[in-house]
Amino acid sequence: MPDTLLRALPLVLVVVFLSALLYTLARSRRWRREHGASKPPLVDPELTRFGTPFSPTRVRAARLVRDGCVADDPATAYVVVLLAERELGTPEDPWRSRSLALLLLVQLQLVLSQLINRGAGTLFILLALALLVGCTVALGWLGERSARRRRERVERALRLNRAPAAGFHGARRAQGEEPT
Questions:
Q1: What angle do CA 62, 65, 69 make, to 5 degrees?
Q2: Which terminus of the chain has fewer CB atoms gathered within 10 Å of its CB, N or C?
């Protein structure tokens, strides 16, 4: 009886995790349809004034946005504000990281079935299962946590750089250069 139960365990787990994966994929699709999750435009005319995405100003600004820091000059602060508003304007699908974690769990069932087919002991199989599930749950939690922390840093960068960027924007307007 335990041998039959042990052989059926991967099949049951695959069905459970695959069902959960399909549920999260459906929820993700529904979320994207309701929130209109779209990618920002590939070429932003306002940002192109400061060079390509690999120009020193934009690379420094992207690093400041990522770290949530204040820029040392108004032009970079303006680019930081543009990049931060662009990133905050793109809604993030909360179901994405859950789907990826469940996809990993479904794939890890192959490892479990290989252990069973090779005749590994029950204790070793249960320990491997607990380790796989624990690592996958930890990966899902870390994905959510890193997305939340990244958003907080972007909001902090936006808050810190608004005043210097307003000075740059005001100086450009005084020179008669109106943004497009």
A1: 125
A2: N
